[in-house]
## 1
Amino acid sequence: MGSKRQHPLPFLQSWLQSTVETLIRKDYTYSHNIVAKNFIQSSSAVKLTPILRISSFIKTTKDNSITAVLTDSTHKILVKFPFKSAIINFENTYKRRITQDTVHTLVVIKDANLIFQNRQQLKEQFDVLYPNELDIIVLEILDLTLFQQEQIKFTSVDNSLHFIYDERWYARLCIRPKIGQKYISTDPDEYEGMISHDEDSE
């Protein structure tokens, strides 16, 4: 279970679980890896200000995106920052790299997609593997702003947070049924070339 304790940072609240539970359709099989597109702006699923804390950066991918782990007050989630939208916008705005002095800071998510990633993508881009029967969603952040720039580490609280994928409610939503599965991936590179927010906004 995710931590229910009060987070030391009062602006950081729990909204990932309720958002994911609202946006993923339990009795639906996805033929495309996009679960919700631009949902921060277009959906009523996000009930609170979408503030997250940068826990760690994982790696730079082949397309120059950056993967990371971000948290709300109760859960962790895998995140991808596309180069052509999030990274360029952030670095043009703040005149520094997105990875420079941002771990443990708070950010406001201005625009994002919720997407499925297959096992090959998880291994190559996030250095993780999950059981075959569990489909994994990633928060693809397209635009963000800094909210609190002070880097404060809360080791005990940080260590108590679990990934949403480890929760029973997530398994009920995203575990594959005996026949078929939640997300049918026909091409391991199906999302390549589609991560630019500008290219998809027509």
## 2
Amino acid sequence: MNRSKVVESLQMNYQAIKEGKGKWFDKRVAYTIARSFVDKERRFSDADYRHMEEILKGELGMFNVLVQPVRGILLGMLLANGKSRELDIHTLIKDYQRLREVGFQASSYSYFSAYLLQFTETAEKEFIVRRGQSIFEEIKSHHYFLTGAEDGTIAIALAQQEKLESLTTKQVGDLVEDYYQALNDQGFHKSNQLQFAAANAAMLTGEFSLELIEDIKQVIDELKQSGLRFRPEFYNSIVTLGFLTTLKKVDFQVLREYLELLEEKTNLRFYKDFRHSLALGLLIHEEMSLLSNDNLNISALTITMIMAQEASAAAAAIAVSVAASNSSS
């Protein structure tokens, strides 16, 4: 894989976003959208974005919960996956209503959950939504004050996973909690990011894996050698890399190459942690693409789920960061 071209593609899509309707987007939002287009046959189209946003605004009306940065990231993900028709917006809103009807919160983040439902057959959506709500309540029973609307995405992702079909929703919630405690024992701070990472571990493995925990230790050491601090923003990526390490040898020299390219070719000079998070995402994307068909334990749907989880987490982190910046200015 030509990594220089990957970063050039990322930067090209970023520029297209910033030169269009995304002119006033926070840089991290624009790069999160641009990353959705990496390795895709299509490029970001400002005309398509404006068209989809107008349809969305027309359907939702003036007063609605789908605000920036979630709206921009969500529309970018839809466009990156070839969803640019009016019907795609109608489906998103209808799936959002399904979620609301069973008790999911009225929140921008519930739209990420609705986005995931496009990968479920219509006949199965009612079951997945109800199972997802039950999983959400089980997770919340372990961490009442920690669990919020943004965690709906992980609940739906867990409900969609074939590896977890044989488990009751209580067993799924307990598995997430087992990973939460095990990762906390390895130095992961108790936080929403840890809850995301624990759910990701459950989704990837389908059962508790001591091998994964051991490999995660190695990943943390590798990141430190590459100059990355052990930060909550990286928790989800660390778990995914740990899982990949159980399947194949991960080349962390690739991470160092992406770190250099992103520092050299992007507009993220003053966003070091986000730049590092982006490099981890590109490494994961490349490593997943190298898995052989015989060893493909990660489905395309799972990859999409991971990206949706990360986008939801990124949107939450960016929103908090921007709010803090505005309050201090």
## 3
Amino acid sequence: MLKVDGLFQINLVIDGLEELKTNPLNLKGLELIEVAGVGLPMLQGAIEIDDPNVRALFHEGNKVTISYSIGKDDEDDTIDTRYMLTRVTTSRVNHQYLISFAGLYDVPAYLITHKQRAFSNMSAVEAILEVAKDHFGPDYIDSNVKKSEDRMTWLQGAITDKKFIANTWMHADLPDSFPMIAITTDGRFRLRDLKTIVKEEGAKPTWEFHQRADEEAEDDGNKIWYHGDYTVDNNSGFMNHWLGYGNTLDMRDQELSEYEEVLEQSSPQLAKASAFPRHSDVHGRKGKPRYVNDNMYPRYWHAYQQNTTQLGLYSTISVTLNYDSRLHKQMRVLDLVYFSEVDSSAEKFDNPFTGLYLISKLSRKFSQNKVVTTVQLSRETLSDIQGEVR
């Protein structure tokens, strides 16, 4: 167990350990990682042991249970989550075994089992949530939208559930919006409609990040004080046509022999801006021809164009910061947050990187004396963008 009174406590138990008469696990460090997208949460850590029987338990495929909490009686309950080990390295050091390990959230069927089935008369969102329930359970489906503006028979042609969700996700039609997916450390399958998040939470984001001006400053509710250093990655794809430069594709109806040119335009929703970082001299290009049949709903490829464009745009601006003031167990990927730059004034959106973001990656790294939370925030453009852009 790793524990700092009043800050956190975290424990690891490996399957098979209860059969031994001792519990000789000396946990040195542990990191829990969750990322936006259809990938599973990850685990990596290290322990020291001197019992060869325990060493034998650490192998690929065995399961571990991670339990963590704030360590205060008046706070929320302990979070328990299961992982399957995927990589184990053992070193002999000073007459002991140092074991480094990595793992994934324990739903292997989600990744490897191929299925062939159909979801009739459903929207894309309904089909995705139906599949997710098989692995994460109905109580851990966390969606702010029940259905998308599409309805057809969605075919899963001998592919994994992860692959089916990834494919169907890109064809979910949410007009003037974008569906987002993530799986959290505690096993929640999150699906978010971007437009709904901004409408319902934009005025009061789940978390606020402000620079720590005073070492004595303490977190207050949803207000978190981060260390003064942070990294901004501005990957606007200046010459990348895929990032929403107005790409078009030819769509042909196989039954009716009709032709349509598909063009989907986007507009900023998180940043207080009217343009993306796209140079005005760079114009779109045509994607490869696509085809529709009687089973596909009319906007099948329109939604694909919209969603792939948005997926690129909302990876454009990212801010990475960290703090170690306390453990926020309820913080999750896809939470809407407000980030304030170090030199921001009282104005809410006065600097180009100040404003609303989504959490796209979240890491909690536990050691023997502290827990460091590293947060990656993402959005589509700057608040104040200059130059010949459109």
## 4
Amino acid sequence: MKRTVADLAKALLNATLILLALCLFLGWKLMAAAAAVTAQAEQIASRVAPLHTAATGLREDLASLRAALQDGQGQHGQRQDGAGLDGADTASAARLGRIEERLDQLQTNLAGVRQLPLQSAEQAGRAGAAELAGRIIRAVPLLQDGSACPPPPGQPGS
């Protein structure tokens, strides 16, 4: 009887240690995968940063161009005795407006791209954690009913 209880205690301890090792291994793999996703996200973000800087520079250039165009229109309008803007100036102003709209869309898209790696890393972490929890949950009933480990030779049920 003592030997059976001691063998059961050893088996319980062994199963617990195996389950703990499995959990640690899967957690380690999860953390490695999350680190890889984070590294890729940082690479993507570093590639987007120069685009954002360039878009900001373009916006400043467009603002200075618009100011110069408006100054030219003001001087041109005075020269024509209040006749107003001619067709070329109006077309230039309209083109600048369209370019600014496209630049606004570009900056909006860049902001979305910068957020995408963070969202992806968060989603990958949640999916990995859910997979790890699912594996542990599936393993526990097998350990409880003894079907995870076959009985040793010579025991009933082998």
